[in-house]
Amino acid sequence: MRATYILPGLALIGALVMSSIFTVDERERVLVLQFGKVVQVRTEPGLGFKIPFLQEVVSYEDRILGLFTQEMEVTPADDRRLVVDAFARWRIVDLVRFREALGTGGVEQAQLRLDRIVNAGIREILGSVPSSRVLSEDRTALMNQIRDKAKLEAVEFGVDVIDVRLTRTDLPEQNLASTFARMRAEREREAADEIARGNEAAQRVRAAADREVVEVTSEARKNAEIVRGEADAARNSVYAEAFGKDPEFFAFTRSMTAYERALKGANSSIVLAPDSEFFDYLGGASIGGRTAEGTSTP
């Protein structure tokens, strides 16, 4: 009879003991609730105890969680629409506030609220700057502003927004063709400006080179004329000194040179009077006391 009552009693006691023990995983944090109110917060891993049937245990992630936002269209300050989506990382930092603000919704409800907060921050921050800044590689400051704005609003339900990153910032499909055409026109205009500036610089260099060539050539010609003039003067001086010693011989050589030039060629013809001075040395004129025929002057 006693054994019949003892065994069920032991089983009931064991069940009560087991239902009063709970385990806290190192990746989780735990709230102990009694009639919906928080009576205990466990953040350290290990075993915990609660009152069976009166208290319940609710666990929450202690790890960093991720949130992917849906793509949306944003209109920056220059009225060029962009398609944007983002990725946020967040973590529960205040379990009591998180439970009180979100109730039984937990992480799913927190994701929905964070999604609205991040989207609103993206629209506000990106709408205040031109699209060129959003599309540039240096947009870390914009992402930090979105993160800070979301962090302030998420504190209300015990969440810390660690980071927000823009994963996509593209133009809508219907705007791509016109945008590419405008970008191509801008690049072609820049290329034309560069070519014009290059041609202008080349023309300046070419004009300077031509001017330098003219100056150098003129200077060389001037020096050549000076040298040639000095050489001619020296030659004439030598000629004058040499021919001054025998004027008759000088006249004779000049006449011979004139004969050579006048009678040069196969078809040369000269019409002169017989008594012309041109033929003095071909007649009986004397050269050094001798006539052209080789006879002595009387």
Concise summary:
This protein is of the alpha+beta class. Helices cover 52% and strands 21% of the residues. Strands 6, 7, 8 and 9 form a 4-stranded antiparallel β-sheet that branches. Strands 3-2-5 form a 3-stranded antiparallel β-sheet, with no helix packed on it.
Walk me through the structure.
The chain has 298 residues and is an alpha+beta fold. It has four domains: 2-61, no CATH class; 65-171, Band 7 domain (Tetrahydropterin Synthase, Chain A, 2-Layer Sandwich); 175-245; 246-291, no CATH class. Helix content is 52%, strand content 21%. The strands form four sheets. Strands 6, 7, 8 and 9 form a four-stranded antiparallel β-sheet that branches. Strands 3-2-5 form a three-stranded antiparallel β-sheet, with no helix packed on it. A hairpin with a 2-residue loop joins strand 10 and strand 11 (290-291). Helix 3 crosses helix 5 (140-154).
CATH superfamily of the largest domain: Band 7 domain
**Strand-and-helix sequence, N→C?**
HEEEEEEEEHHHHEHHEE
Q: Report the portion of residues in β strands.
A: 15-25%
Q: What shape does the CA trace take?
A: rod-shaped
* Largest pleated sheet: 4 strands, antiparallel
Number of helices: 7
Q: Percentage of helical residues?
A: 40-55%
CATH top level label of the largest domain: Alpha Beta
Unreliable parts:
285-298
At CATH level 2, the architecture of the largest domain is 2-Layer Sandwich
Radius of gyration: 57 Å
Protein structure class: alpha+beta
- Average pLDDT, to the nearest integer? 80
The total of beta strands comes to 11
| CATH third-level topology of the largest domain | Tetrahydropterin Synthase, Chain A
